[in-house]
Amino acid sequence: TCRQLNRFPVPPWRNWVLGHTGMAQSTEQGLQQVDELVRRFRGGCLWWALPWLPVLRLFHPSTLRPLLSASALGAPRTGWVSPPGEGLLLSRGQRWVRHRRLLSPAFHGDVIRGYVGVFNQSTRVLLAKWGAAASGGPVGLEVLQPLSLLTLDTLQKCIFSHESHCQEKRSEYIQAILELSSLVVRRQHRPLLHPWWLYHLSADGRRFARACDTVHAFTADVVRHRRRALGQGGHQDRPGDHQGRRRDFIDLLLLAKDEDGNTLSDEDIAAEADTFMFEGHDTTASGLAWLFYNLAGHPEHQERCRREVRELLAGRDTQDIEWEDLSQLPFTTMCIKESLRLHPPVTAVSRRCTQDVALSDGRVIPKGIICLMSIYGTHHNPELWPDPEVYNPLRFSPENTKTRCPSSFIPFSSGPRNCIGQSFAMAEMKVVAALTLSRFRLRRDPARPPPSRAPELVLRARHGLWLLLEPL
């Protein structure tokens, strides 16, 4: 193993005892450090996260492709970032294979088509609030927090068919989800609390347990009642119909069967629903917030998106975005993708090799090694993206995309373990962006300094993302 690892370059470290301990930070300076590593070690480097823990940090398709496409890989058990339940994100082996196969139909285009009305409905609630705040003219607002509530509102409707009105009033369940996210980030920065036995003894650990209990109780109750209704109704194809509502995520998982006719247990369904809520709201909200920030700094691109939306909606009785419209917003889609490149919501994903992985240059990643696949580093690699710090949506024009390696743009990861909800997220982002740009002009606030990026569970800004919103 040592001989194989020695073929990877090692950045300067503290000393031979400490290695790189404490040198990686979840701060603006930490991202600038990644930029420097990418410039110096274009394919990747060996990082001693602890004196006894080697980690390969990778940021080029030549090193990423074999890992992304390999089936013999699993996510390492970083228990201190675990969501409330072992869903698809952290499961491994045959459990992961079975669950992935059973969950895939729940994210089919025909299912997402039915959610577009929900995307419109939730977005209009937020835009009404912003409209009231800006009734006297342009107003400065922090956008990430309300966008998080929007995505949580949407997810509750799509997963549970539950109307919590969380954008307008406090919801115990939604507050528990938000608290879990906050507590996981706090724990990330406190290594002494990483061991579960110590964490459970702390005040934060007790708060985490209470929030988990709230989330689990809500989800278990929905699954239990829906299972009972399914058994009583006998409608094996569409359990939601007899209640006068659309099929939701819970319905689809209750009906899911593998090739042997086996179904998911109530506990499995609850774990997947909790994971979707926990992981799905912040990532989409982060992507939207940074999209609005980038468009606010490039009014020419913002105006072109607005024209595209207005031409699409011209002459209609309704101003809702429909499923068929999503493919008719090519420039808006290019802007979203370029924002996901420049500010990826998830900056890195990790894998632990369960067997040796051979690279194209003859090097081998040894079995058991943790690989930190830097999405941010890959998206900012000057070998792949000339002038990587420049926001240029034309990078994603059809002619430019045609010649680019697919593994150079991986906001949703790639390969067998890619994000199963990426089509859902992209559809929601298009609807929210189109409706927002048709109602407001976005500008950066010259009175505020540039945001200090914070790569936590998702990419945030240290003091929030503030924009000026001007009603149109």
Automatic annotation (TrEMBL):
Signal peptide: none annotated. Its cofactor is heme. SUPFAM superfamilies: Cytochrome P450. Keywords: Endoplasmic reticulum, Heme, Iron, Membrane, Metal-binding, Monooxygenase, Oxidoreductase. One of its GO terms (molecular function) is oxidoreductase activity, acting on paired donors, with incorporation or reduction of molecular oxygen. Heme binds at residue 419. InterPro entries: Cyt_P450, Cyt_P450_CS, Cyt_P450_E_grp-IV, Cyt_P450_sf, Cytochrome_P450_Monoox. GO terms for cellular component: endoplasmic reticulum membrane. Its main location: endoplasmic reticulum. It is found in: Endoplasmic reticulum membrane. Belongs to the cytochrome P450 family. This is CP4F3 hydroxylase. It comes from Campylorhamphus procurvoides.
